[in-house]
């Protein structure tokens, strides 16, 4: 579909059963593959990012089967490193899959190529490669670009001390952590600079614990993973609903409506679940339950000045909600938005301006002043699922056209259908 024109709507109302979290689906698939025993994963997301991870496990000949309708995956783990051999893995633009697989495969023995689509070939991975090279792993770039494709001549991980820049992506630290129990000896990871997106590292450590492995976190500056340790698969594991996907409905409800999302609640392991709290700070009525989050509009939203480093994905939803708030919204500490699906600071600023806002764009911040009236226009999405999903919220103010809306298939293929069921 080339574009979708969304008519102006007055409110958004209803309940949503959330699709599984992309981050938890991809972590649990890899953990299950490394773990000992048979496991059933439930509520696994079906979307490009997770499909590529599942296919990679199939390519590696890991015994696994999937029922997409029932959202389940059955898998027999390797009880240690992934299979040895020579394999090429294509992971499209799935950062979670490319980064974690690049480190995990180093524990095996063989020649592996890890590649992605054109945008993935522009997304930096040097910090992770440097950190792996410091552990004496033979990993290099196919084209000398500091980006995938990567060539890995894997011969196990000995262990030892490494360091990694923490300011570009937490996924590098997640990748090192997930692979470290497979080493022959303890791995110590020192973080250079301030670690970005910390809740994603907490998620990694929490899930490693669920699969039987301990990590010591010394104030996000040093992580120590005693090795070797074996991952043990629990019999079954339920993937939480995706808090990032929830934000498009909860953000719209904060403007005008009432939405309850199921599958993710007050004890969520996803930092992005804090997004509803941000809506609360702006003036919406918010309830966190055991397995739901509910947002009701309270009439007026006020602009906010906020550090969104811990909610890097839902910060984009906030930028669009800001178009409906009274006063200025400033979103800070978001430098790494530029190395994601697109250069997100620039993309968000450009499209908000197209819809009439006055926006100041900095290297790590956005200042958004909403227009008196949101303009009916065509929104470019830059092959970024979150651009398509977040900018659909503008339909609460005007008819809006979203170009290439199906780029949402990266994490939420049904987004526009589910949204349609809620519009009033
Ligand atoms: O570890 C993860 O699952 C993720 C970490 C975040 O990336 P950064 O650490 O690069 O901010 C986030 O943007 C991404 O969607 C998922
Ligand atoms: C940054 C994102 O994805 P990735 O896992 O590819 O980094 C995202 O989903 O917003």
UniProtKB/TrEMBL annotation:
<feature type="binding site">
    <location>
        <position position="197"/>
    </location>
    <ligand>
        <name>3-phosphoshikimate</name>
    </ligand>
</feature>
<keyword id="KW-0808">Transferase</keyword>
<dbReference type="GO" id="GO:0009423">
    <property type="term" value="P:chorismate biosynthetic process"/>
</dbReference>
<dbReference type="Pfam" id="PF00275">
    <property type="entry name" value="EPSP_synthase"/>
</dbReference>
<feature type="active site" description="Proton acceptor">
    <location>
        <position position="313"/>
    </location>
</feature>
<keyword id="KW-0028">Amino-acid biosynthesis</keyword>
<dbReference type="InterPro" id="IPR001986">
    <property type="entry name" value="Enolpyruvate_Tfrase_dom"/>
</dbReference>
<feature type="binding site">
    <location>
        <position position="313"/>
    </location>
    <ligand>
        <name>3-phosphoshikimate</name>
    </ligand>
</feature>
<feature type="binding site">
    <location>
        <position position="22"/>
    </location>
    <ligand>
        <name>phosphoenolpyruvate</name>
    </ligand>
</feature>
<comment type="pathway">
    <text>Metabolic intermediate biosynthesis; chorismate biosynthesis; chorismate from D-erythrose 4-phosphate and phosphoenolpyruvate: step 6/7.</text>
</comment>
<comment type="subunit">
    <text>Monomer.</text>
</comment>
<feature type="binding site">
    <location>
        <position position="410"/>
    </location>
    <ligand>
        <name>phosphoenolpyruvate</name>
    </ligand>
</feature>
<feature type="binding site">
    <location>
        <position position="340"/>
    </location>
    <ligand>
        <name>3-phosphoshikimate</name>
    </ligand>
</feature>
<feature type="binding site">
    <location>
        <position position="123"/>
    </location>
    <ligand>
        <name>phosphoenolpyruvate</name>
    </ligand>
</feature>
<feature type="binding site">
    <location>
        <position position="386"/>
    </location>
    <ligand>
        <name>phosphoenolpyruvate</name>
    </ligand>
</feature>
<feature type="binding site">
    <location>
        <position position="27"/>
    </location>
    <ligand>
        <name>3-phosphoshikimate</name>
    </ligand>
</feature>
<feature type="binding site">
    <location>
        <position position="95"/>
    </location>
    <ligand>
        <name>phosphoenolpyruvate</name>
    </ligand>
</feature>
<comment type="function">
    <text>Catalyzes the transfer of the enolpyruvyl moiety of phosphoenolpyruvate (PEP) to the 5-hydroxyl of shikimate-3-phosphate (S3P) to produce enolpyruvyl shikimate-3-phosphate and inorganic phosphate.</text>
</comment>
<feature type="binding site">
    <location>
        <position position="344"/>
    </location>
    <ligand>
        <name>phosphoenolpyruvate</name>
    </ligand>
</feature>
<dbReference type="InterPro" id="IPR036968">
    <property type="entry name" value="Enolpyruvate_Tfrase_sf"/>
</dbReference>
<comment type="similarity">
    <text>Belongs to the EPSP synthase family.</text>
</comment>
<feature type="binding site">
    <location>
        <position position="23"/>
    </location>
    <ligand>
        <name>3-phosphoshikimate</name>
    </ligand>
</feature>
<feature type="binding site">
    <location>
        <position position="336"/>
    </location>
    <ligand>
        <name>3-phosphoshikimate</name>
    </ligand>
</feature>
<feature type="binding site">
    <location>
        <position position="169"/>
    </location>
    <ligand>
        <name>3-phosphoshikimate</name>
    </ligand>
</feature>
<dbReference type="InterPro" id="IPR006264">
    <property type="entry name" value="EPSP_synthase"/>
</dbReference>
<feature type="binding site">
    <location>
        <position position="170"/>
    </location>
    <ligand>
        <name>3-phosphoshikimate</name>
    </ligand>
</feature>
<dbReference type="GO" id="GO:0003866">
    <property type="term" value="F:3-phosphoshikimate 1-carboxyvinyltransferase activity"/>
</dbReference>
<dbReference type="GO" id="GO:0005737">
    <property type="term" value="C:cytoplasm"/>
</dbReference>
<protein>
    <recommendedName>
        <fullName>3-phosphoshikimate 1-carboxyvinyltransferase</fullName>
        <ecNumber>2.5.1.19</ecNumber>
    </recommendedName>
</protein>
<feature type="binding site">
    <location>
        <position position="171"/>
    </location>
    <ligand>
        <name>3-phosphoshikimate</name>
    </ligand>
</feature>
<feature type="domain" description="Enolpyruvate transferase">
    <location>
        <begin position="8"/>
        <end position="417"/>
    </location>
</feature>
<feature type="binding site">
    <location>
        <position position="22"/>
    </location>
    <ligand>
        <name>3-phosphoshikimate</name>
    </ligand>
</feature>
<dbReference type="GO" id="GO:0009073">
    <property type="term" value="P:aromatic amino acid family biosynthetic process"/>
</dbReference>
<keyword id="KW-0057">Aromatic amino acid biosynthesis</keyword>
<dbReference type="InterPro" id="IPR013792">
    <property type="entry name" value="RNA3'P_cycl/enolpyr_Trfase_a/b"/>
</dbReference>
<dbReference type="GO" id="GO:0008652">
    <property type="term" value="P:amino acid biosynthetic process"/>
</dbReference>
<keyword id="KW-0963">Cytoplasm</keyword>
<feature type="binding site">
    <location>
        <position position="171"/>
    </location>
    <ligand>
        <name>phosphoenolpyruvate</name>
    </ligand>
</feature>
């Amino acid at each position: 579909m080339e574009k979708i024109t969304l008519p102006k709507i007055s409110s958004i109302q209803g309940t949503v059963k959330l699709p599984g979290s992309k981050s938890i689906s991809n972590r649990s698939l890899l953990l299950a593959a490394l773990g000992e025993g048979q496991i059933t994963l439930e509520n696994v997301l079906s979307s490009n990012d997770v499909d590529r991870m599942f296919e990679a496990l199939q390519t590696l000949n890991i015994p696994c089967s999937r029922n997409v309708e029932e959202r389940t995956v059955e898998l027999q783990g390797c009880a240690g490193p992934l299979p040895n051999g020579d394999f090429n893995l294509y992971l499209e633009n799935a950062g979670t899959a490319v980064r974690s697989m690049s480190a995990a495969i180093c524990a095996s023995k063989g020649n592996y190529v890890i590649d992605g689509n054109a945008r993935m070939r522009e997304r930096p991975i040097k910090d992770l490669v440097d950190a792996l090279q410091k552990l004496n792993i033979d990993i290099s770039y196919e084209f000398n670009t500091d980006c995938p494709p990567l060539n890995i001549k894997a011969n196990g991980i000995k262990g030892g001390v490494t360091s990694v820049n923490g300011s570009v992506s937490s996924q590098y630290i997640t990748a090192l952590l997930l692979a470290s129990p497979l080493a022959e000896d303890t791995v110590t990871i020192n973080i250079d600079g301030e670690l970005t997106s910390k809740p994603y590292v907490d998620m990694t450590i929490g899930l490693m614990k669920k699969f039987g492995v301990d990590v010591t976190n010394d104030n996000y500056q040093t992580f120590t993973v005693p090795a070797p340790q074996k991952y043990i698969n629990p019999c079954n594991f339920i993937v939480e609903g995706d808090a990032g996907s929830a934000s498009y409905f909860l953000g719209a409800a904060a403007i005008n409506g009432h939405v309850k999302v199921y599958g993710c609640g007050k004890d969520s392991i996803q930092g992005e679940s804090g997004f509803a709290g941000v809506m609360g700070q702006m003036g919406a009525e918010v309830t966190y339950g055991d397995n739901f989050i509910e947002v009701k509009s309270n009439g007026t939203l006020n602009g906010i000045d906020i550090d969104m480093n811990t909610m890097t994905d839902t910060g984009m939803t906030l930028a669009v909600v800001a178009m409906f708030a009274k006063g200025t919204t400033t979103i800070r500490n978001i430098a790494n938005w530029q190395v994601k699906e697109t250069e997100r600071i620039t993309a968000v600023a450009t499209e908000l301006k197209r819809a009439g806002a006055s926006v100041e764009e900095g290297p790590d911040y956005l200042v958004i002043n909403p227009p008196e009236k949101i303009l009916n226009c065509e929104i470019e999405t830059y092959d970024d699922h979150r651009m398509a999903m977040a900018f659909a919220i503008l339909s609460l103010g005007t008819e809006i056209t979203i170009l290439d809306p199906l780029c949402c298939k990266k994490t939420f293929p049904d987004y526009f259908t589910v949204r349609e069921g809620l519009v009033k």
